[in-house]
Amino acid sequence: MVQMTLKAIGLIAVSTVRQTEGVSLDEQERAIRERCEREGLRLLEPLVILPGVSRSDPDIIEMFAGDDPKYEPYRRLRRMINSKAADVLISYDDGRVGRSKSMYVYIAENAIANGMRVLIVTSGWIDADNEDYAIMAGGIRATTDMKRRVKMSKAGIERRMQRGLPKREPPISHRVARDELGRGIRVELREGMERFWADVATLVLEGVSWRDIGHVLYERFGHVNPRSGKPFREGVLYRILHNPFFWGSAAIGYSDQHGVWAFDETAPTPPDLKINRHPNPPIPPVYTGETAERIKAELHRRADSVKGRAHPHDTARFSGLLVCGVCGWRLTVYRNRQNPRHVYYYYRCAKSFLPGGLKCSNKRLIRETLVIEQVGDFLARWLARANPDLLPLARPLEDEQRQQRIASLRAEIDQVRAEIDTLIMRQAKAPLSIQDMYAQQIERLAHRLTVLEDNLRQAEMKGEGQTTQ
Question: Which residues make beta-bridge pairs with 333?
């Protein structure tokens, strides 16, 4: 009786470019070939998953059924499994099959469902008889390995931060100096940008908004973003001037939560922030002396009042001075330029037009002429009083705005908590293969909840301070 030789698909994978240039691939292939020879398997061809393909990506459908070129190795593996091209899928270890439980389960279950057996060189066989236990144990090993690697990566990033080095790249104001082996040794100012930063300081101190400063830099001084060759887009210079490295500090864990904490040690910081304000070797700041103090004062002013959106030479009389009577947010200017001979100004609540989140119900556009009439009428009546002092009006207005702000924050906190509760319930009922996606959504909302609760505490503490004065 002729015995059929079982065919095997060899699966080898790496995590970094450096591994492809070392011995990792060779070691995996050698171990797989030796095991196939010992088991009497005929290896069809190794299946190499190239670096850059994330094996912990939770979007399994996109990876195996989409059209993104970087996921082609996974689709090739799926076609070979579904066509029953082999009898065995062999891999060096659990981590080569998938870095998450859901990925490991998907590949192993599909192979077994198509009549194949799975052979892990470091742990043994998986087939229909021991499928549930082996896949569960393998998934746990794969996830544990990934968590260990992530923990090591985070520790390395924190050590770099303590030495004054960034997680990736510093802002365009600075560069990383490297040794002969290409290792970062310190952060230093990028040469040849002195004129650029002087012109940026001029516009910031003039009050040019973050929205327009990139275009004004180009129109008045001819400056463009050195990385794109085009004028700076809205918000880019805001993030640069609120980056801790810009002011001589090293930090991680702040993502896009830039703010005055970058240069002010007394300001509230993002919840996951780790910052080193005195790195060794030191990081030179862009601005020093009187210029630095003036820039910091202007950034504080914008953070506390107009949010950097007022135009210094605009004819909108009430920019940054009006607040919404419903939610307490500041009203922003809307310009109607349909009539080329005249521009009509309106004011509207910015929160009612924000995408997502808890929007304000006040969507009215208030014409500037109406505001002028109301303010003029009020001033006429107030000045007719025996004591026309306007200062007593300031405190009640501040208290009312603070109460509106607190109410808005509490409503948003309640909404986020409800969303988290809903996701937790859905995660509990979801299959194991998609629970990781729910966990990521819950983590993002939990981070947002922490920020909102910090803002609420600050608003309440500010009110208590004013009450005791």
Answer: 347
